Amino acid sequence: MTGSEPRAPRAFFYVQHLLGIGHLARASRIARALAADGFEVTVVTGGTPVSGFPGPQVHHVALPPITAGDAGFSGLADIDGNPVDDAFKDNRRERLLASFHQSQPDIVIIEAFPFGRRQVRFELLPLLEAIAAMDQKPLVVTSLRDILQERSKPGRDEETVALVKLYFDRVLVHGDPAFAKLEDTFPLAAEITGKVIYTGLVAAPPPAHPTEKFDIIVSAGGGAVGNALIRAALDAAKAIGTSLSFALITGPNLPQSDFDAIKADAPAHVSVLRFRPDFASLLAGAKLSVSQAGYNTVCDILRAGCHALLIPFTAGGETEQTVRAERLQKLGLAHVLREDDLSAEMMTQAIQAALAASERPPHSLDLDGAQRTAEILRGLL
What we know:
With about 375 residues, the chain is α/β, with parallel strands linked by helices. The chain contains twelve helices and 15 strands. The protein has helices at about 20-35, 85-105, 120-130, 155-165, 180-185, 225-240, 255-265, 280-285, 295-305, 320-330, 345-355, 370-380, and strands at about 10-15, 40-45, 60, 65-70, 75-80, 105-110, 140-145, 170-175, 195-200, 215-220, 245-250, 270-275, 290, 305-310, 335. The strands form three sheets. It has a seven-stranded parallel β-sheet with strand order 3-2-1-6-7-8-9, sandwiched between helices. The mean pLDDT is about 95.
């Protein structure tokens, strides 16, 4: 490189997954698109390690991992399940700040915060304060999914708006406004309208042709809370019989004892798998996807074009997946079974109804949000 050539722009991307792997998967897709667009990308993760993420084209900094203490996100635990203490938090904060200063980024991307991930404000607020004190500041953006969790505690939305106004240059909403707008699930969106940019949905590229075919793909995301879904699907597979092949993808975080029990109980026409890196291509060859209604899984389903049966995750008062599933159902793009109604009998009936449905209508939702995010960030710089 000669002295006259500009260096590649540098992006510093923080993502913390606590229960599932959806946040990490979406951030990894964006990070890959940034790298493909010529950015030098540092991805800082703070959750349980997941094979294949955040990917080979980025510099990865792994903070000491923390997880949700329970499905309601009411506490933080280390990788062994012990509650995190102040010394643990101090160590993470110092590592994060050191990584930031070493990276010297042109742009800082913080996934979810301040709209979510309040549990890690102990390290994110010091990072934002350090940036605010700099003479030459990097751009700071938050990376946000299209549908947010409803906040029940008074003052939370006002606090979020105050933090956005104080520290953030832009709010990147990874969604198609024709499907969901920020104001639909964030009541004070009008106060930050000038900072909001929609990128489109962050879906993976169109999948390759499947190397293996299953009629019905059942998936439980990260798997930490998917045991009931997988169990009901296994019972449904037995009831439906051998005319249809099933793949039950439990996710990497399903406890090993549960995985072993499910596998031992599965008949010959049911394959029980931990994880499939070719998940998207399996969907492209399937008649039906059965899953929760997480952002990334829904993006994969929309890209693949298969029928979908969604069982939205609702534990701990979660509302986001229900909103997404109901909107897809209204568009004719999915069938929905409530988590409260989950049983072998109801799962069997719902699968049969979804398989008997007419052709799925076409949609025009923008699925190229990763590439668009890279274009937007390059334009901002």
